[in-house]
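User: Here's a chain of 360 residues. Predict its fold as tokens.
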Amino acid sequence: MAYKAVIMAGGKGTRLRPITYSIPKPILPIAGKTCMSYLLDSFYNAGINDVIVTTGYKYELLINSIISSKNNGQNILFSVEKEPAGTAGSIKMISNFLDDTFIVGSGDILSDFDISDILKYHKKNRAMITMVLTEVKSTDQFGIVELEGDKITKFLEKPEESETLSHTANTGIYVMEPEIVSYIKSIPYDFGRDLFPRLLRKGIDIYGYRGKGVWLDTGRPNDLIKANQIMVNRYGKDYNEQYIKGKNIIETSSKFNGNYIENSYIGNTIKMENNIKITNSAIYDNVNIGGGVSIENSILMPNVTVKNNSKIRESVIMRNCVIGEDSEIVESIISPDLDLRGKSRIYNVSLASKIIESDI
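Assistant: Prediction complete.
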């Protein structure tokens, strides 16, 4: 059977601002790929070649990114929403394309589940809808379910800890039969607030499947750093050399000149001076790093320059920035195109180069 997939990729990623002022959340880089690429690869590995992407915010950037990096043989259509349709409403808008079992995923959530196993589970139960689940520590950012056996009996969207049903959360991945669309009564319409409570009231079984693989909501800057670390650890190569230790993904052919690298992603065309230490970080293409620089638990996006003896910890430095010599940046976000003078001290700050009013 030739299944189809839908990826929802229209959100603004407001919790990740100012990062998402310039980059849509689904195409943020994670260990050398975009967040959404992991989901596309999961579909591709399950033999799903027909994908519809629903989008809105900065859709031109998102479409160009997907087209340039998609798998060969994967056919991708785009549905651009002029006004937000809601998670379920976006499915309603493309229902003419959904004539058989289909799977829905969120492009701004990092996941690489075994999609084939999810589809087998759905078919074995002859389900109308299957929701993929995972365990979470905090419940106030997720839809939380209560289960009896394999079936969901209650659903609460983003409950406070005091009112939560469990710590079993909706991952935003669903397998559905086309008749589900008939229960989406209007636009905008939301899965969590509208559709799932309606289905339960109607007595329609929602099956729960516990996902196998990586799943992470990259909703905040620290989550984005963590996502890079998780995927480097999952897909990196083991190193035990004098200056390269742990799991790393190293794309560049540049020489490291005795610099220390541990548990990190290193992109292409990286220029390094001497006495540099990079740990638990992601360094993207065309980055220049001066001598004596220390980078820890951080992300440097393309075309960044870090001058001599600077220290960066728990931070995200976006593209085309220049960090002056002897600077220290801790737990901060530096927006694109900023040029920081030497001896800057930046702690727990988000520096935005510009804010576009239409995005607020």
